[in-house]
Design goal:
The chain is built from 6 helices and no strands. The chain is an all-alpha fold.
C-alpha cells in the first residue's frame, strides 16, 4: 500500500513538471495562455486552472498539443530530457535551418583544423 502512495506522488510530481515545462514553452513562443488554449481547442482558462492548481491535463490534450506545436519535443515535455525544441530539419523554420547548417559547417571546420594540427591550444 505504501508503494502505491509513493508511485502516486511521483506521478503527480511528473504531471506538475509537465505543466511547468509547457508554461515555459508558451513563454518561449511569446503566446498568451488564452491563445494557446484556443489553438489546441481547450476551453477558456482550462490550462490556466491546471497551471495555477498544479493539476494535470489529459493525454488527449497532450496529444493535441504535440500535434499542433510540432517543434515541441515530446521527450522534453513529458520526461524533461533533451532540448525543448525538436531539431528535426522538417519542423524548423528556414531561418532555424540556416543557423543549424552554419553551426554544422563551423563545427566541421574546427574539427578539420583541430585534427590537422593547424589550431593548437595554449
Amino acid at each position: 500500500m505504501a508503494a502505491r502512495g509513493k508511485m502516486t506522488t511521483f506521478a503527480l510530481e511528473d504531471e506538475r513538471m509537465t505543466i511547468k515545462r509547457l508554461k515555459a514553452y508558451i513563454d518561449f513562443k511569446h503566446i498568451s495562455v488564452a491563445a494557446f488554449e484556443k489553438s489546441i481547442g481547450m476551453s477558456n482558462a482550462s490550462f490556466a486552472k491546471s497551471l495555477k492548481g498544479g493539476k494535470s491535463i489529459g493525454s488527449d490534450k497532450l496529444e493535441r498539443i504535440l500535434a499542433t506545436y510540432d517543434d515541441l519535443s515530446a521527450e522534453w515535455l513529458l520526461r524533461g530530457e533533451g532540448p525543448m525544441l525538436r531539431t528535426d530539419r522538417h519542423v524548423m523554420t528556414p531561418e532555424q535551418r540556416e543557423r543549424l547548417e552554419a553551426a554544422e559547417l563551423l563545427a566541421d571546420a574546427v574539427s578539420r583544423l583541430t585534427g590537422s594540427g593547424a589550431v593548437r591550444g595554449g
